[in-house]
Amino acid sequence: MTDAANALPPPVESRLPVDNLSAVITLDGVSKRYGADSVAVDQLSLAVPDGELCVLVGPSGCGKTTTLRMINRLIEPTAGRILIDDTNVLELDPVRLRRSIGYVIQQGGLFPHRRVADNVATVPRLLGWDRARVQSRVDELLELVGLDPARYRRRFPHELSGGERQRVGVARALGGDPPILLMDEPFGAVDPVTRQRLQQELVQLQDTLHKTIVFVTHDIDEATLLGDRIAVLSRGGVLEQYDTPEQVLGRPATPFVADFVGTDRGVRRLTVLPIEEATLFQPPRVSPELTMAEARAAAAGSDSRWAVVVDEEGRLDGWIDLAPSRVGTVRGNLVRFEVAVPLGTSLRTAFGEMLQHDVRWIPVVEGSRYLGVVTPNSLHAAARRSPPAPEGDGDRAAPGDRAAPGDRAAPGDRAG
Length: 416
Ligand SMILES: Nc1ncnc2c1ncn2[C@@H]1O[C@H](COP(=O)(O)OP(=O)(O)O)[C@@H](O)[C@H]1O
Ligand SMILES: [Mg+2]
Hints:
Layout (H helix, E strand, L loop, with lengths): L2 H4 L18 E9 L5 E10 L4 E5 L6 H8 L7 E6 L2 E2 L5 H6 L1 E5 L10 H5 L1 H5 L4 H14 L4 H4 L9 H12 L6 E5 L7 H18 L2 E6 L2 H7 L2 E6 L3 E6 L1 H6 L4 H7 L3 H8 L12 E2 L5 H8 L6 E5 L5 E6 L8 H4 L7 E2 L4 H11 L4 E5 L2 E6 L1 H9 L32
Parallel strand pairs: 3-8, 3-9, 6-7, 7-8, 11-12, 14-15
Antiparallel strand pairs: 1-2, 1-4, 4-5, 9-10, 12-13, 15-16
Helix pairs in contact: 6-8, 13-16, 13-17
The structure holds adenosine-5'-diphosphate and magnesium ion (MG).
């Protein structure tokens, strides 16, 4: 290399410090050996599509950190190729490469003796931005991660909580607006409540930023919550399965994966399964204008003791008990639902609402239109249902919970 190539690269004004990088990451037969009999990663091949969040998950020592650090060349592979788009990272200047790849580690990895603003300003300054631009970028990033710049700018890392340090770590990694983020167990050192909040914030951030993210964790729940795709690794960096959370939980590819995701994978799947219209339970629907006798007649033929009250425009009014002792009008007997959820909500959320409000029917709406109800049985059926096979020959069970005894209980506990 010439002296010029070893000097600091010139300031780059483009969004991407390395020209023309978008962000498809391809690992092609990548291995890392430490000595003759120590294989950290073994011929790993996988591709992370542009704008997706891929989680590397597996037990401690399975090669997750090694894999991550080979992408930004903090570790050099023993064999194989790593491409960003079509460029072998080994052909890129490592310093410039790392400026186009944000890197977040546990505890944020902040410089302890530098203030928050200086930590966040690291890459913008390396890129040669002027003072004003750096300052406004720092404030913008702090706001992005939910920290008030006026309060936090001048603090030192030791003056922050674990969650705040982690947010600053994310802000710093986003400094030069890199297309790629590598995150190594970033939320591993914070308490469970803070961790959950940081996970939600990352989901929201990714909704707007669409970075290509490789996220490392040993926690399968975190993996299924965050990942568009999950790579499950076993010891020696062996790829056991690379697929969507739904497939990994619903169709573990190997005994290792089945064991790793655990016996409660059915419950875990509720987190990744959205409510679908076809699987909703359809109790009889009656108009609020009817008398109770008319409502019973309208619901005759159904074995349900309760009916959902829906107005002419298809909007949900509530529900009624169809028992013969109930007289008068539907309106006079109407019970409002305490909660309704939009179509597409996760079954896990619907289940949570069911428990919190102690009700058995959770009505599902799309805009103002009522679609049907989620019941304990529909949750059960969904958790047991296999996801469709990739070829499309799925074995979805019928919704089939119409006459299930569980649903004969009252939809809400106010029915007495
Ligand atoms: N510098 C090193 N020298 C020798 N072995 C190492 C080195 N770094 C990591 N390893 C080994 O490589 C394997 C994978 O490590 P690592 O990638 O850190 O795993 P993980 O992040 O999944 O916990 C482990 O068995 C670890 O002991
Ligand atoms: Mg690690």
